[in-house]
Amino acid sequence: MKKSVLLMALIFLPTLGFASNGEEIFKTKGCGGCHSKEYDSFAPSLKTISKSYYKKNQELKDYLQGKKPGLIKGEPKTMKGFINITKKLSEKDLSALIEYLLSF
Ligand code: HEC
């Protein structure tokens, strides 16, 4: 009995962790190719994003769902293709991604 519970946990935990891990989503969707954690380039750093969207989770969500333009001025065209990606994320994955983006 104990063994099978452990086995179930081993099978399911990694998949659960994967789906709800904002950092994984950030990496697998290629966001890190342009956004560094610390340094602003042509794309704002995660630090800048965290600061600009401090207590503005809803604004960030609207942005990532393509409902509203971003708060940070830059090159909006570059992000367009990626909004098409974040727009399709599930509610849960999007929340996890937002939590990660705002954790810097
Ligand atoms: C090809 C480079 C590139 C990639 C890849 C990229 N971004 Fe961006 N991102 C930018 C640029 C340039 C800006 C600044 C212009 C703008 O605000 O649209 C930006 C802005 C942003 C902003 C701030 C928006 C604002 O203006 O307030 C967020 C949040 C963001 N990106 C999230 C993401 C996420 C999440 C991903 C992955 C799904 C991603 N980006 C992938 C280039 C990129």
UniProtKB/TrEMBL annotation:
Domain of life: Bacteria
SUPFAM superfamilies: Cytochrome c (SSF46626)
Classification via InterPro entries: Cyt_c-like_dom, Cyt_c-like_dom_sf
Keywords: Heme, Iron, Metal-binding, Signal
Pfam families noted in UniProt: Cytochrom_C
Gene3D superfamilies: Cytochrome c-like domain
Residue ranges constituting the Cytochrome c domain according to the UniProt record: 17-104
Any GO MF annotation of the entry: electron transfer activity
Keyword Transmembrane helix: no
Signal peptide annotation: 1-19
Protein's name in the database: Cytochrome C552
